[in-house]
Write a structure and sequence with these properties.
With 155 residues, the chain is mainly α. It is 78% helix and 0% strand. The protein has a domain of 56 residues.
Length: 155
């Protein structure tokens, strides 16, 4: 960017796990500050350094601001709603994919069994199997056991 600005990205969980190996103690303290779960942790850090005292005071002011807190809660709710919707859509897509895969496998198996019993079926039968629903495939599979001709299965 420029020679006057540096940008550092930190992964807090990783930073906190390697604090013994970290040669930047201030960085570790900021990691603790940013990931603190309780006011006691923040208070302890604030007593250790004036910088953390300023940061805690700023955080307290923000927390006391009803509008800022409400915005933060709305954002959190929006993120949770988005993630829940995404998870539901992913689950639905996976379920649909599994169902389509099972249906395709069933159609392929039925086509193979028909070929073994009656010889290669006409193209129209293969297309009918490929486009059939679960109930039809199941019904045709059951009829295959007793059928003497293709017509008996698909009648």
């Amino acid at each position: 960017m420029t020679t006057h600005l540096e940008l550092h990205l930190l992964e807090l969980p990783k930073l906190l796990n390697i604090h013994d190996e970290n040669d930047e103690p201030t960085l570790t303290l900021w990691g603790k500050f940013l990931s603190a779960d309780a006011d006691e942790e923040l208070e302890q850090l604030a007593m250790e350094s004036p910088v953390f005292k300023q940061a805690k005071d700023a955080l307290d002011r923000l927390s006391a601001d009803d509008v800022a807190r409400l915005r933060a809660e709305h954002r959190e709710m929006a993120l949770l709603t988005y993630e829940a919707g995404l998870a539901a859509a992913r689950e639905e897509a996976e379920q649909k994919g599994r169902q389509e895969g099972l249906q395709k496998g069933h159609a392929e198996l039925l086509l193979r069994l028909l070929t073994l019993k009656f010889g290669p079926p006409p193209v129209s039968i293969a297309e009918r199997l490929a486009n059939a629903g679960h109930a039809d495939l199941l019904s045709w599979s059951e009829r295959l056991l007793a059928a003497e001709t293709l017509e008996e299965i698909f009648a």
